[in-house]
Amino acid sequence: MPLKVLTLGSGVCANNCLPGKRRFPPGFLINYNNQLLLLDVSEGVRFRLEDAGYDYGRLTKIAVTHVHPDHADLSPFLQAKLCRTLWGEPVEGMEHLDVYMPEISIKGFEDAWNWRHPEAGGRLNHMPEKFKFDIHPMRGEWEEEIFPGLKLKAFGVYHGFGQHPALGFRVEAEGKSIVYTGDTGMVESLFKNVEPADLLIADCGVRIGQEYTGGYGHMGPSQCGMLAYRSKVKELWLTHYVGYDAPAAMEAEARKSGFTGTLKVATDGLTWNV
Ligand SMILES: [Zn+2]
Ligand SMILES: [Zn+2]
Prior knowledge:
By secondary structure, the protein is α/β, with parallel strands linked by helices. 21% of the residues lie in helices and 28% in strands. The mean pLDDT is 96. Bound molecules: zinc ion (2 copies).
């Protein structure tokens, strides 16, 4: 059965920092036999899903690595799903959404949702007969078969000076594995959870020559390359970069690790298939 990954956002939290092709904030769609899982729900991602030929109303599973605004603009997506059921033609899956996120971040989201809907009197699901969402708490070592034949795993990573609860995800289906680091600096949990991955989608938010240990919590090209090399990854995507370094320079830097697999500096629309 087909397993596909589609890049909906290879960019960062700000646009127009540099001239060049527009890249949106993070979002990766996993399509396993027409069962859809979205990794990170960035600003306006439903429009990009539509542009790629997917109806966001059919999307029933979203997993959020962490709740920085460029990864977790969840409220507008929920609102759109809800209002589709009021105004739109029925489509399969439109009445429900499962959201997976770090356990410790759930209360804050619920407060934000209630802030937007004081008329609901504190009820998260305002119209459960029309639309219902469930939030599933994740923490490191969490795993679940969320679709028949597709397993989602979560592991803790390092981000926001170690103060921000953040996860990486590993998706397994058809004997293949896809790892999305989310936002993270170099941390031991990556090595444990990446190996062996068929596809590694790695946060490359730091410029060449500015890689650090600890610090805020992003990786640079040399670190992504080292992770891919040591973890025997088949294909590496560098993502979540501002764009100051030329793609060829980013690749060359990542290759210094000895990594010889397929390497792509991700742009929006990039796909992977088996
Ligand atoms: Zn972040
Ligand atoms: Zn980010």
